[in-house]
Amino acid sequence: MKATIERSTLLRCLSHVQSVVERRNTIPILSNVLIEAAAGGSLRIMATDLDIQVVENLNAVSVDTPGAITVSAHLLFDIARKLPEGSQVSLDAADNRMVVKAGRSRFQLPTLPRDDFPVIAEGELPTSFEIPAATLAQMIDRTRFAISTEETRYYLNGIFLHVSDEELKAAATDGHRLARFTIKRPDGAEGMPDVIVPRKCVAELRKLLEEALDTNVLIDLSASKIRFTLGGENGVVLTSKLIDGTFPDYTRVIPTGNDKLLRVDPRTFFEGVDRVATIATEKTRAVKMALEPDRVTLSVTSPDNGTAAEEVPAEYASEGFEIGFNANYLKDILGQIEGDSVEMHLADAGAPTLIRQDEKSPALYVLMPMRV
Length: 372
What we know:
By secondary structure, this protein is of the alpha+beta class. The protein folds into three domains: 2-116, Roll (DNA Polymerase III, Chain A, domain 2); 127-252, Roll (DNA Polymerase III, Chain A, domain 2); 254-367, DNA Polymerase III, subunit A, domain 2 (DNA Polymerase III, Chain A, domain 2), CATH 3.10.150. 17% of the residues lie in helices and 42% in strands. The protein has helices at residues 7-17, 73-82, 133-143, 199-209, 266-276, 327-334; strands spanning 2-6, 32-37, 42-48, 52-59, 62-65, 67-72, 88-94, 97-102, 105-112, 127-132, 158-164, 167-173, 177-184, 195-198, 216-221, 225-230, 236-241, 260-264, 286-292, 295-302, 306-313, 315-316, 321-326, 342-346, 353-356, 363-367. The chain has a 13-stranded antiparallel sheet with strand order 5-1-7-8-9-6-2-3-4-17-16-15-10. The protein has a nine-stranded antiparallel sheet with strand order 14-11-12-13-26-25-24-18-22. Helix 1 packs antiparallel against helix 2 (73-82) and helix 5 (266-276) packs antiparallel against helix 6. It starts with a strand and ends in a 5-residue tail after the last strand. The model has no long low-confidence stretch (mean pLDDT 94).
C-alpha cells in the first residue's frame, strides 16, 4: 500500500478514530487502526475496541498502490500531530513495516496484517431514521450527566432511547437523579425497539457531532446494535453494540402531584449553591434549602469547616419547609437550564422533586432529596 495525504486531513480523521482505541490492550491488533487505500484515491480508516467501531472515509492526494494495513493508532496520531502544518504525508507499507514521510521527517513503524483486524458484524438494522445533529447533541447534553457509573447496575450505564405515541425520548438515571429529553418522533422511528446506548458510545458520538452540527445524522438500529452515519459520503460511521439489559420503568418516579411550586433564576441559584457548598466535605455534600415566601435560604453545616448560608430571591407562595439535596447533583441540573427561570415542583422533605424550565420544555429532571 502506498498513499499520500494532507497532514490536516489525516490528523482530523485520526483524532476521531484514535479515541475509541483503548490505551491498554491485551489483544495487540486492537491498538491499531486499519488503513485501506483504494485505487480511486480514497482512504478508509477504521478503529474498534470490539464494542464500538468508527470508520471514516477521506480523500487522499494520491494512491500509488492500493492495499490495506494496520498500524498503531496512538503512535500515528502523535506523529501526525507533530508534523509541520501544511505538509503532505506519505504512507508506504511493505514487509510488516510502514514508512511515514513528511518533509525531512521519516518514521518506520511496525504493522500487523489487515486480515487479523476484527470488524463488528452489524447484521440487520431494520429501524432507520434521521435526526438533525444539533438536536441529537442537545439530547445527549441534557441527559448524559445522569448516566450511572456503577458497573454493577450495567443497565443504567447508558442513555435509554424509546418511542411512545408521537415522541422519541432519551432518558438517563443513576438512582439519585433522572434526566429525560423528548422530541417529536422522527419518520421511520415508529415500532423501534427500546435500546440503551452505552456511555462510551455516547461520549464518542458527542465529539463527532461537534463538527457536523449543521447536518443530519442517519440512525440505523436493531435490538442489539446501533449505527450513526454523520456527514454523508465522506463522513464518519460509528457503530456500537447496545447494552443487553432492561432499563427500569423510570416514569414511575416522575412525580405528578407535587403541589409546591418554587420559581427561581437558575444562574443566581447555581452560584448560591456553589458558594455555600464550598465548605461541604465528602460526608456533608448536602445543601439545605429553607423555603419561605419570596426567598430560599441555602445553608451547609460541616463539622470540620463550619457553616455557610445565603439567601436567594425566589417566587414561592406555599407553606414554608426545609429540604436537602446533593449540591453537585443540583448544580448539574441547574447548569442545563438555559432560560432565566426554573421551576421546582416540591411535595415534602422526603419526596422526589421535579425540575424543569417550564411545562413546554423538552427536558425534565427528577432529583431525590437527602436527609439534612
